[in-house]
């Protein structure tokens, strides 16, 4: 697919949005404080963004609460909410090139991915949940004569959403779509590294006609803005996507405030299990590379552990060596680039530290392992593969969140499944086999919220996404399940006697 615009030219003309959006108005932070947003590809400052704090969260929550309690959104006919959300999605689609460039600039991801994956999926997700708004039915229960009893779903209220930096717009859509379709109002806290695109789509929501206060955006840092949102007694639910460490904090915030519902989608250390009967090793290699090098490995569901049956291990690794040539690392604004930058210097150093630790613990470095393109001023790490990885090594157990693949071998299928399940996480798993029975059994035995067979896939907006263990709990993104988790269940009992 060829891009129909010049990314570099558009990037030079984009005006970064930097103010928060509260109650339908673009405003500065109450304190006037700002913080710098940097380009991971060059290290250069993109903009100074308004820095939210407690007072700003208070203003945004008050706007969302007023819009929910007194405004038209929750009382609107579901079909009318559907139409407004569809108008919102179409406006995002109309500004897709601008938004794709903005996301590439602030997240360091390839423009090809931003333009052909992230933006289309953002629009599709909002459209899907918009269409669901008027297709969720209440229930009448069989309570006998003289009684009418119904079970209804009502919006939960004010929803806080805390977003990650790796897929800013897609993750925003995953929260906004179901929460707003269900009739809630929202306060979004984007990742401080990637605030601009979230602010921009909130501006488009206002342009689409969403009532004031329905969608608010307050940029800032986790320890201040995020904590204020998590602790706020007028927030009824928080949806969080990010690290397990921070996810634990939101559970504490809930316990220390109003026991708000907390929905966590956290980290992963996902396995790809390749059985000895896997036939298409070129397909295995292509999927293995995509699973670890897409978005420079900065993906919670990346298959960072490759578990190979010993009979096909050497040949599979040779095929991976060939497939890696397609993963061109370079300027994210170049449409030919397949792998872009690392989000910030501290994260790059964490990745490099994990690489050195893997060497020290006895893993064999097959390729990569270094910072590259340092002359650009940006932060890039080579695609990296370790072999001879044992289950006790740190690189096999801790989430690196970078382009680092650990490879281990097994002798028997049961051993491979046991190795795959030997983790505290359980977000995603892949299995490759030519045997239908083996595929089915492995899918049921693998402890993960999503299992993909003979491919690397997280599903789409129609299927629930979330994990087991340290990968989070409390709900699922996407699908009807996501819509339901932003509602309360109410029983209405009417005595007709």
Please, could you describe this protein's structure?
With 497 residues, this protein is of the alpha/beta class. It folds into two domains: 7-266 and 472-492, Aldehyde Dehydrogenase, Chain A, domain 1; 271-461, Aldehyde Dehydrogenase, Chain A, domain 2 (3-Layer(aba) Sandwich). It is built from 16 helices and 23 strands. It has helices at residues 7-13, 54-70, 78-94, 96-107, 111-132, 168-181, 196-208, 222-231, 244-256, 281-293, 313-323, 345-360, 394-397, 413-421, 436-445, 479-485; strands spanning 20-22, 25-27, 34-38, 45-50, 139-140, 147-155, 158-162, 185-189, 215-217, 237-241, 261-265, 271-274, 305-309, 364-367, 371-372, 380-381, 384-387, 404-410, 425-426, 428-432, 450-453, 468-469, 487-495. The strands form seven sheets. A seven-stranded mixed beta sheet has the order 14-17-18-13-12-20-21, sandwiched between helices. A five-stranded parallel beta sheet has the order 9-8-7-10-11, sandwiched between helices. Helix 10 links the parallel strand 12 and strand 13 (305-309). Helix 1 (7-13) crosses helix 4 (96-107), helix 2 runs parallel beside helix 8 and helix 4 (96-107) packs across helix 5 (111-132). The longest helix has 22 residues, at 111-132. The model has no long low-confidence stretch (mean pLDDT 97).
Topology diagram in text:
Blueprint: H1 7-13, E1 20-22, E2 25-27, E3 34-38, E4 45-50, H2 54-70, H3 78-94, H4 96-107, H5 111-132, E5 139-140, E6 147-155, E7 158-162, H6 168-181, E8 185-189, H7 196-208, E9 215-217, H8 222-231, E10 237-241, H9 244-256, E11 261-265, E12 271-274, H10 281-293, E13 305-309, H11 313-323, H12 345-360, E14 364-367, E15 371-372, E16 380-381, E17 384-387, H13 394-397, E18 404-410, H14 413-421, E19 425-426, E20 428-432, H15 436-445, E21 450-453, E22 468-469, H16 479-485, E23 487-495
Parallel strand pairs: 7-8, 7-10, 8-9, 10-11, 12-13, 12-20, 13-18, 17-18, 20-21
Antiparallel strand pairs: 1-2, 3-4, 5-6, 6-23, 14-17, 15-16, 19-22
Helix pairs in contact: 1-4, 2-8, 3-5, 3-7, 4-5, 4-7, 5-6, 6-16, 10-11
